[in-house]
Amino acid sequence: MPETNGTRPAPPVTNGRLAAALLALADAEEPGGRAARDYRDAAAALRQLPADLFGRRINILALPHVTPRAADALGAFLACGSDESISDRLAAILDREDPARERKRDFLTRADVDRILSSAGDGPAGLADLRADLHLHTDRSDGTLSLADLHRALRLRGDRYAFLTDHARDCSVAGGLFPADFAAQARDVARLNEASDGELLMLLGAEANIAEDGTLDVTPRTVPQLAGVVASIHTGLRSPRDQTARLVRAVETPGVAVLGHPRGRLYNVRTGVRADWARVFAVAARRGVAIELNGCPERLDLDPRLARLANEAGCLFTVSSDAHAHRHLDFQRYALAVARLAGVPRERVVNSWSRDRFVAWLEERRAA
Ligand SMILES: [Zn+2]
Ligand SMILES: [Zn+2]
Description:
Helix content is 38%, strand content 10%.
């Protein structure tokens, strides 16, 4: 767990540490075998529990997706009494330090998020301050929601505006949109906005892919229907080479409003790219480009430590879900918890702004 910044302290044993330890056990088992699956399933379940297990009288075996094998391991780790002691115990079991420890560092579980957001605090943005989600996918790229269903879900939640950010076709991640598809999407978005009687204003953007040389596959200059883009890296994420120039070039591209999931890290998979973050954040702050706090629990990118650095650099932020499905819309809470840990003041969270201010800011990014 990262430092707490005025939020309620974490218990001595966190669900996050327990889950990470279970995953280390899984990695030591035969890949694809029953034991590995038991540990993995239990770890995934733990990361989604609404409260920390430590100190609660609870039948571990009654937890969802926890088999007797996983329950035994959990019981032993809980008895360690602290996150640090779990590390020692794990090292003794594995006969070495957990080799994947770095890939699981500074992530938040649902229990962490609930604890952080329930802490009283003035200044940092709260859930009630959010008026929009600014990183959203539909089934026109790699999401599952139709455009109409997404629009409806956001409107019912009471969002005032939204930034739609499907991938463009060039992106290696998933089938995206061709320029002509964006024109059709623009018409559909306009129709849905009109039908919502001004309740929700969806703005058409895209998640532009940052190539290894820092150029983008789509911008408002190449696709004039776009109000702006979230620019993100999706390739070369394990490169040992410094990626500062790549990220800076993207941030300096007209039409880029947000630098999306800047590190490209993935829980228990990769730590993400290396860069001179102070420099990237300084350029973003100077150009008024927002740094994304991506709430997808597997990404949580930026992590709280780098988010604090970006905050100190004076950056703007977006608190976004990167939703690819309806249930992902809730991921904004994870991003908000990071904002709170980093001490981000409310006025620097772009999606707490009024609709007019947001639209004007996008316009400035296009002209910049
Ligand atoms: Zn992405
Ligand atoms: Zn995305």
